[in-house]
Batch of 4 targets.
Target 1
Amino acid sequence: MGSKNKLKRFRENDNFTNVIQPTREEAVIDGLNLKGNWNKSFFKNDNPIVLELGCGKGEYSVNLAKMYPNKNFLGVDIKGARFWRGAKTALEENLTNVGFLRTQIELIANLFAENEVDEIWITFPDPQIKYKRTKHRLTNEEFLEKYKSILKKDGVMHLKTDSEFMHGYTLGLLHGLRVEIEFAHHDVYGIGDEAPKEVVSIQTYYESQYLEIRKKITYIRFKFK
């Protein structure tokens, strides 16, 4: 994508009513004024809040919003030029139960209050395979603690990935932490009707390409105790 295209999308994001773009200072020092007030001030209802972390183009957030009109969805990513597509689609289709938050995922606990979130999706994250990149892996123990701090007591986590490494790493970590694993499979499209519908009925652009070359898609659903 050219720099002119990116700048155009950034400008449009500034005017989109479904996009929130706090500065790092707002997130780290001042605290976002929406923290603890996402239902009241942003969605203007009391429906459950679901986050998609590392949402990319926002395809999953938008399609989940269509599938579950009685839930509120927030796609979270630092790359606003990417989720511009999802934000624009949501506005064009008048989807009032989906929005987008531009921030670093490491700041997520600064932007949501304790027990404010009902579900968290992590879709096709960078597995950060190299040892030196472990701290950036979105299911490492430090990140899991952040998610736990904002989830409700019965809150649900979802991990969908094409990386067998990420799948295995996360499963191993969850077993060690004694987390309740509700569902796990290394080939979610290969198990027919057993697969949760929201996992196999929504595909991102890159996911469809993975499936074309018969790359297996893995999935884990779990809860913190």
Note: The mean pLDDT is 93.
Target 2
Amino acid sequence: MPIEPDQPPVRRSDATRAAILEAARSRFAAEGFRRATIRAIAADADIDPSMVMRYFGSKDGLFAAAVDIDLELPDLGAAEPKALGELLVRRFLAIWEEQPNREVLLTLLRSSIADDAVTERVRTIFAQQVLPAVLRFGDPADAPRRGGLVVTQLLGLALCRYVLRLPPVVVMTPTQLIADMAPTLQRYLMSTPAD
């Protein structure tokens, strides 16, 4: 009889931390940063509120951990230049359809409107993850403008499809959204500033 290799045991602390993060993502997505409470998150995770503080130190620390996201944008430098807009829309839609990404992004989008700390987190994601992708093309000095325009389209789509749930946008298939939005993103990625 073959001997099964020992599987490393899941540490209780890892399971507790994961349960807290899952509860926090759900609660922050539903209520936003301000309305969500440590007590409610702890109740959702079926633990004492002091455990949340032990693992994350504060509500701000918990929020930062709960909304830590890597957009995993495609390497645009290795892509066919004519397909850049399509690649970005396709990846953006994929991110929104994955859990826990969807809850994280919903939380960021909803909370950024009312909370300066969350707004700063969104700006950081833009600066660290979107802007470097845009810098690969066109005039580097113009990258912030072009990157900002790309984000207006993607966040507008997210707001209408996943938050406001506007019926005409919700019923569109990913293929339709890619076909309609990719040319606009392509133009922003490759454009030069107007004179």
Note: The two ends are 77 Å apart (CA to CA).
Target 3
Amino acid sequence: MTETAEFQRQHWFSPAFPVGGYAYSHGIEKAVETGDVTGGDSLTRWIEGILRLGAGRNDAILLAEAWRRAGGEGGGADLSALLDLAELGIALGLSQERRLETAQQGAAFYALVASSWPHPGWIDWPDGRELPYPVAVGIAGAIHRQPLRPLLGAYLQAFAANLLAAGIRLAVIGQAEAQARQASLLPILSALADETLTASLDDLGSIAIRGDLMSLRHETQITRLFRS
């Protein structure tokens, strides 16, 4: 079962798993245009800020809470509580594009897991209700009995990798350097997974102000590669 769980995580967070993450830069595209991000050092610091002080940390807390509300600790799933959590997750998206980012990836992820990893205990998400990406991952993880700590680690690693990939496409960092930068983020990713493992909704919060501002300003950027 341990081997299956590891394979499953690798599959879910593989770049080939088509949740559409490549289409979003989380505001980094605007940060490049304004000169806030100019190369490997500034890109890495920017991603560190998002992880520790912004959406990365909040996503991990939402994922863990969704895992618990979906029965990850051995109880039954509470759909009403999950719907409330999903609504909160959408509300935490500061900009229209950030809400689009998490809702579209969440819907795509949930549908893909349902079709590629069918499970008799699958929770049918109500039509018309948005499902944030971390909440979708937490629900799927609980249903498939994914252990929470490795699931958090895999999610955060994929989160950081997607932002680094945006930097590659925006030509502020090369592919080889991006791999080294990804490896350098391991202590932060590991510490964040440990911290959010036992965090509650009371621990939600963000002070990644510049990142939020770039997300808002990206909505009116004229020439764009990314949707956020």
Note: The chain has eleven helices and no strands.
Target 4
Amino acid sequence: MSAIRLVACNDIKRQFAQPFAWILLALTTALLAWQFLIALDAYLRIAPKLGAVPNSQGATDLIAIPLVRSLSGLLMLLVPLATMQTLAGERRAHTLPLLLAAGIGNLRIVLGKFIGAFVLVAAVVLIAVCMPLMLEFGTALDLARLAAATFGLLLLAASLTAIGIACSAWTAHPALAAAAALIIGSLLAMIDMGARYQGIDNALINWLSLSTHLEPFFLGLVASIDIVYFLLVTTLALLFAARRLDSLRTRG
């Protein structure tokens, strides 16, 4: 456990010692803040009319959930950028053999890299959630639904981070790792859309889609099958990365 913590802490320090992580956080925060303010302005314009409509939508439906849903799409691009250097950067800098020779173990290295990258991604999610959460001081938010959406978003972020780690393990080129992670993540997200377009519903291909299991969280529904799906994707991707490190260790 100490080895995992050591690898994770080293990656976290290295990330935040470089401008890339701060630029990524700043640009993402600025983009989400712009969307949040536009949604808030639109909501304030129609709020007087909503009061006269029975069972009308509130700030949760019109501001909070759309912002969180927008971030889910943005994570498809952000996470590959955050993970592309994890193992590919080590190989490019020729420091991976030293890490493999430290006697830490392949899976522990992968878990440490995963935690180090996930901290940055989770920070983006929490910053985004804090924006609509501030509306609680002036209006009534559905905090349970917002919590469910945040939990689902963190599960999605974990799965995408694990996929990014796996892609980074299979190449020494960070840009190629980012491109591969982006393609795989986008494919898993859109596979359900393509299946429904062909008239396929409630089939295995629909179940394999990230969006199929993410959408219930936005509706406030937390189901064990959706949690298991994201944990399964995360675990398989991390085991895949560990297997790749094992082959690199064997080849020397």
Note: The mean pLDDT is 85.
